[in-house]
User: Fold these one by one.
Assistant:
Number 1:
Amino acid sequence: MVDHPHRHQQNMVKIFYPQSLAVIGTNKVKGTVPHDILVNILKANFQGVVYPVSPRENFIYSIKTYKYVVDIEDPVDLAILVFPSSVCHMALEQCGEKGIRAAIIISAGFKEVGESGLARERQLVEIAERYGISFIGPNCLGVINTDPGCNLNASFARQMPEAGAIGFLSQSGALCTAVLDYAQAKHIGFSKFISFGNKADINEIDLLYYLKDDPHTSVILIYLEEITDGPALIRIARQIIEESGKPILALKSGRTAEGASAAASHTGSLAGRDEICDAAFKQAGIIRCADIEEMFNNAIALTYQPLPRNNRIAIVTNAGGPGVLTTDAAIQQGLRLAKFSDATTALFRKSLPKTANIKNPVDVIGDARADRYNLALSSVLKDEDVDGALVILTPQSMTDIETIAREVCNVSSQYDKPIYASFMGEADVATGIDILQRNRIPHYILPESMCRAFAVAHRFQEHRGKHEPLAARFKVADSKVHRILSVAVEAGRSVLLEHEASQILRLYGLPVLKGGLARSAEEAAAHSDRLGYPAVLKVMSDAILHKFDIGGVRLGLEDREAVLHAYRQIMRMVKKNAPQAEVQGIWVTRMVKPGQEVILGVKRDRTFGPVVLFGLGGIYVEIFKDVSFRVAPLYRSDAGEMIREIRTYLILAGSRCQRPMDVNAIEECIQRLAQLSVEQELVRELDINPLIVHHRGCWVADAKILL
Amino acid sequence: MTMDDVRTRVKSVIAHVLKADSALIADEANFIFDLGADSMQSLELVAAFEEEFGIEMDEDKALEVQTVNEAVEFISGYLRKKQ
């Protein structure tokens, strides 16, 4: 269950379905926001009562105005504030007195203008909380509800969009106007269109929660600049997909990389904010899009047509070249060309011209008219081995574009399988495209975009079927972990010593080698005799973060003599390269036998909280950056997916007669580490680099924990 | 000039710029919320006060003045400095 202020649940119904509303601060000056919003509400034929509130006017467009909202005799469901920011608090206060519990604050001049604006915004929130008001905004374009039972256009957009099944949420008001214009040209309709601006009160989580149960919305689109609560976003998105089966498409700005150089660990430098956002969206099932066009390309596929049962497509084209291009694009997107049944092939052989290609892609050749498209399209959709059809048309002199478009719509209405189309060109095909768009056939100028959209729909279909719980929790001696961390915190250390990090990881069930702390060469040798050879010696000092760099590590020490010598050598190197560092001793372990090196890590992200990293390890980790991320807590399949996601997965899985590494062991380590990251908030960053993986089992060879 | 004189002249300026009845303008009235001034009229008010009282005001600070009482206080300050 998603945390959700109770007042919003009740009040949001009045934002989207008010029976009466007041436009507070409106005027008669055409071309201004306070005026245009009132006009938009009237023009959209709002199915409720409108009360203009204007201190100076007696009437606007023959409608009686009120000086103050409290002067209105009847109850008011929704207040739309269009006053300048300096007096919005006065208007909202009166709304509270009047008993209004829902508001849209259009006015700008709040958080976005700096400190003084932020203070004004906080004042609004304080008033809203005091009266139990829920409000959208401030600094937003407004709200549109195309449901004919309401017909609300409480925005200063230039037009009311067509009714449709897409719910659109945007943090940017300006983007909303561009999207409306774009959508209008393509006959894309919306159920709810919401610009939420500074989200001072109602935020994207609340709105997603509302759209989850909105019967008029089947696909949700969201544009975000910053995320209010990362973990809540993941939870609500998963809930929407699981409970309502509605896909969520997101456009998230801010892809710039965070300065990695300042990071103190590999994980810190590898996990940029955008990579984490990508991972979180994936985990949430949110389909992240690169731009508006891609977002709507995917949205129309998901909204207009049934989801494909699988990824076997049939291509029907009147031109060879585009058919091949589409085939290439489809394969690149992970789709498969369907192999037609004998009956379909026999029918094509009998009915299509001799020069036609009767295999997939089906080329009905250049002189094809609507009847031939009908035959090909109907036949492939009837075929049990086909999950959807992609129609290509190039305008040739005998091509009856409009009739073919109508035929495509006609066939589409007869089958429960998706049809997408690409009528290639612009001027000649325009009328055909218009027919397709009006009849909810997803159309794409480029076949590549069409294939991408089909692949997105297919992946969503696969994802939608999954209902998985959080990964199981392992038993941990929590009090012992706390004690170790408390000692470090009390000593004012921000880095755990080697033996402390090892102990914490062991308590979390990670495979850590036994070790011993030596304060003399003799002691080091004694530990090695006990633990076994070859041995590893590492300097222990909270002032030395990168032990290798200063010569503080010796590997592969085969015997007692080598250990004695290595101890003295390390001490010399430390004195030379880090003379100020206080050395607590030398940590002695047995050396892990060679295997495949991977990295595991934890980082805390300010939006999403603890983030777990996995990747190919060793000293080249920051060069290859072959890593995957997930936000903790993990869901059951996350760890496995993280491993399979990296480019070099095959090295682990085994290829060319190589035995596979113990991937299950890595999976368990990731899950245990994710649990640690959630439970131990004092741990700021953590690196296990490398975790050495064998054909059976794995070992932590080096670990670093930062507080 | 007494504060009452300033108040009377301030209300007269407001009534002229906002086309309102000066008798109906309360001392606590907010230019925007109660009297319906828009952003252009707020600027006009500043200019009209300057002309009426023969003073030159800091425009940013003047635009922060929101009520009749605040305007009287603000302008009186300038008049005191002028003397």
Note: The radius of gyration of chain B is 11 Å.
Number 2:
Amino acid sequence: MEKLIQQIKQGKVWPFPGGIHPPGQKALSNTQAISRLPLPDKLIVPLKQHIGANGQLIVEKGQSVLKGQALTKPVANWSVPVHAPTSGVIADICQMPSAHPSALPELSIIITPDGQDTWCELNPIADPSNLTHQELIDIIHNSGIAGMGGAGFPTYIKADSRKPIEFFIVNAVECEPYITADDVLMREHADQIVKGIELMQQLLSPTLTIIGIEDNKPEAIASMKHAAQHNAKIIVQTVPTVYPSGGEKQLIQLLTDKEVPSGGIPADIGVLVQNVGTLFAIEQAVTQGKPLIERVITVTGNTIHNAGNVWALLGTEIKHLLDCQGFSPVPQQRVLMGGPMMGFTLPTVRIGVVKTTNCILAPDHNELAEPGPEQACIRCSACADACPASLLPQQLQWFAKSKEYDKLKEYNLFDCIECGACAYVCPSEIPLVQYYRVAKVEIKEQQAEQVKAERAKERFELRKERLEREQEARQNRHKRKPAAKSADEKQKVADALARVKKSDDKADSKSAVAAAIARAKAKKQTGELEPDNSEVAQERAARKEQARAYKAQKEAEKNSTTQETGDKKSAVAAAIARAKAKKAAQANNSDTADAPVDDKKAAVAAAIARAKAKKAAQADNSETADAPVDDKKAAVAAAIARAKAKKAAKQTDTAQSDELTTDDESSQVQEPSPQTADDKKKAAVAAAIARAKAKKSAKETETAQSDEVTTDDESSQAQEPAPQTADDKKKAAVAAAIARAKAKKAAKETETPQSVEVITDDESSQVQEPSSQTADDKKKAAVAAAIARAKAKKRQQEGSDKS
Amino acid sequence: MKLTMASSPHNHSHKSLNKLMLTVILACIPGLIAQLVFFGTGVLIQLILALLTVSVAEAAIMRIRKRPALTALSDGSAWLTAVLLALSIPPLAPWWIIVIGCLFAIIIVKQLYGGLGFNLFNPAMAAYVLLLISFPVQMTAWLPTADLLAKPISFTQQLSVIFNGYTTAGFSVDQLRVGIDGMTMATPLDTVKTDVAHGLTITESMQSPLFNQWLGKGWGWVNLGFLLGGLYLIKTNVINWHIPVSFIATLAICSGIGYLVAPGTEPGVVFHLFSGATMLGAFFIATDPVSAATTNRGRLVYGALIGLLIYLIRTFGGFPDAVAFSVLLLNMAVPLIDYYTQPRTYGHGMKK
């Protein structure tokens, strides 16, 4: 470290690899003093003239502003304000082409000068050494200072470096041909620049300050040496004239033998670089109180009569600069902002100069020949010899042409500083830098896409996880209940099963009504075990029973002419049931708490009756007509119903929910199907079908709003009694309830696509539960429920399709 | 006002392919003159034949590829190939030798691989090897220097030999090669190789009138001519110093070691450096940018390996000279060399 400082003090420089020697052309513009332009009749001040966010607009159209008045105020994200370059009126605030290679429109404030050039109140500070660190930073920030060497990085950020700075480097190299703005500024304002350096020293306390100047500027070197002689910590270092020694990274290497790590910033290695123009602006801001509203610009080129440097107000149109210096354009004139190596051509001269504009170059075709046609690369690697970053430009070029982005990254494309040295020396005149720029943009786009895809994937996975978690939670909830059953209860279940079997045998010759009644009775006995909300639910159920019974009756009547004689029995039963149900419903309505038992009885009976009627109707109606054996009827019908339901579900559901639903259903349905062949199950099956149908029609009249509420209640209801079915002969009731809930759910599915998935999950978990429970019990209820659900769904789908 | 848009940089060094190629051709002149002086004007006839052939071949292929023929020709790369091949073959080789060589170099080695910049192999050397293997008699029929010839031959006689196979007086090339003493003359490299194989020492072998103390008569001058041209190329930044320097240094080191180990059978450093195609190979052949290594470190490796191969083949191989073989072999190794010799990019793998 000591040794390094010693070497630096002895004037040692460490040449970087590569570099080129294009004709300097500096004598065109550096022979005369900086002149001042007449006030233009229009100023275009873009809000954003630096790297970072816009300031916030604090003026409006029509408002009068004074010279130096802030037009925007800094907000977050490296925003830097802009100021009125002269006094006048804001003519407009609109989008104007920007001083950028793309010339994309940028929100700009257009000021019509009033010709008075009246300053606003300034706040000069005579002795800045009394200022605190933050005060100084704030002055730099509020004066709108951003790097004036070209990049436009907000100076207050750099000046407020959190990392310790060992070497403060002043970039006075100005290696780009033609440009002499820094050169003449140093000749004329060396004292102010040194003052600016000292302000930065106050902020950063570097070990050493090195001013790097190319040896083609002897006057500037002399004046800077003179101005800095009182300060032992400032060294003026003369560096050989090689392009691009003014590149930040190259200058650091040149002056300190250090390299900025790839992807890092100079502060990472204790170095900070500022351009002389920026330091002058800092001095003006602090000691004069003047914000950044003007800068030195070199106006040069063979088409300019009076090439030289001018003080230009920010926002001055380039046309004004050219006209004032005498401009006689040639055919196919190019006007460059910046120098010939890294500058960019402007699409129009109606663009305002900004904080980073150091040169306006209007060359003719002799000094800067138009590029010739691109020829084949002969791999001479003159480009590699010229590259200051030790890249392999010709390899990069092959990869860029073949869009091998991985290779480009491997060959460190992003360490290219786009200095243009490679393209300058290329004998085949390949526009290498252009290839790299395009490739960089493409790679960045590709990376952005990848990030996006990555995020989407993450979201999807999180969601999947959450759904799985929820489903698991639900399943656990269900599992816990059966598991909690005591041995005593198990015994009860066994008893109940026995009873059911017995009753089934007994009812062999009789109608299934008896069995149902028995079951209903059994249920009545255990009614006390019903959960709290069962009363409300039952009230609702009863109401629905009523509707269903009514419908069943109607259908029965309709079909009665074609019915077999045996079916009339059930029609009668249905009528009776209906009456009972009505009565029960009324009772329920008046006093639900007192009559749960009656309700249930009636409801069950009604259901059974309806079922019978329905069954008959179904048999006659269609598919099952050719099924002579009674026993098989239900099975066939069920199968058909399943198939239909599946088909319908597939057609209309979204792909995701479709899978879930279908899978669940199929697994569930397949399970009990062999058992449907069992005797005497028709009644139960038919009952479920009937209920589902009735439900569907009832549903259609309900509003979506109430539907949801109901469904929720019912599903909870359906879940609740599930464990208790085993207790006694409540199978039928439970199955019915589940079927109802399912039917409703299915209906709801088609209504709100958003909730489809969740509901489907609910269903699947729910469905699996009862089916396993009733498995030992011939699965009657489950089969019925499935069929009912399927049918209801199908209908619902059809209905929604039509609508 | 309508402004022209362009992408940076807006300045150019005014180097061009055409200038580059012409500079290399220009740098061949000292060597060419030496050949003219010592081996007769036949080389000029070969040169003209070669230039005509490559121009026709290049233009025809460009026409077939539907690209502007004139632009391709004007880059000068085909002419350079023609010059290098014409300088490499025996001056009195029959006309079809150079024509076949040029057609092969341009059509197969260069254009079938995609044209300029895409060829894997040095076109001139690939063609040379093709000719050497296909027509070994014609390709090794180098005449001794003019002063050793029993019957001096004029330009018209050389023309007649190239196109008819016989001089106007009816002598064939083999008859012309017979020296004053009635012995058929071979090249110095060939002579040494054969003599050493027959058990003679180098000193004995160099008693032959072909030699001028240490060097083959004429050959030393030809090599000096190419060295001169090569130095000019380095000075004008047309080629980098890496390949010639590592090439020559390696050959010098190897032959030096060989001489120290076996002074009786090893001809020594100077003989190796100034015989055969050493200097032509070092400055004009191995430095062909398209087929050579592209990184500076890679070029050092590339040049050194060519030098090593030349020494090995000359000393232990079946051919008297080995520039073409060595260059072609290393052309194949270029992608590998380039991959492993990439320079350290700024900011990567910091030194401190």
Note: The first strand of chain A starts at residue 35 and ends at 36.
